[in-house]
Amino acid sequence: MDSQALQTFILSAPVLLFSVVAHEVAHGYAALKQGDDTALMLGRLTFNPIKHIDPFMTIILPVVLAIFGGPILGGAKPVPVNPRKYRQFKRGDIIVSLAGIVTNIALAIVCTILMTIIGLIPIIPALGESQALLQAMMGWGVLINLWLAAFNLLPVPPLDGSHVLKYILPPGWALGYQRVGFFGIIILLFLLETPFLSYWLAPATHLSIWSWTLAGHAGHLFANPLAPWGGPG
User: Which residues have CB under 8 Å from 136's CB, separation 6+?
Assistant: First the structure.
């Protein structure tokens, strides 16, 4: 990893950590609203990252992907839920499963707005570098959250998309499909080694480029090599 790549990773890592924690907190909060207080009782409805860090998904995976030039992806330790406590099992399972994805999309929208606002603030020479870094961080916030939303929509157990797809499949197929969950991590690791993941994430990547362009039309984009798409200055 060269120095610029290392600086980029250091800039984007806090965004990734906050985003995956928000994703899991959203699952727990949605479960609480559906009648399951498991996450609340275990102290997981918190933004304290220590409560959510998973050694592989939160640390090892993002670092390995960054080293090999892959998308900056990761995850947090799944928030425990008990679907048997949901007031309506099917409805609750779908809502809780999609809560993290909706949260990541919402964070991408918020980052787009903040990125634009930073560009509308008059450039202050003494703070120009800080403004550029903040805008670059918001740019990564858009890209990472859209990547996380798309990644979690993969219909591979135990990712969120699988919890929705199982209700669309015929009952017999759904049962066999859920059994694939035992091999889900192996399947995901295999996909990371193929071009499929890049194709799957392409719409999210293009949408983040559009967001960056939109912010540029509304205000100023700082030329910053650490930003996901740079900037004309």
Answer: 11, 222, 224, 226, 227, 228
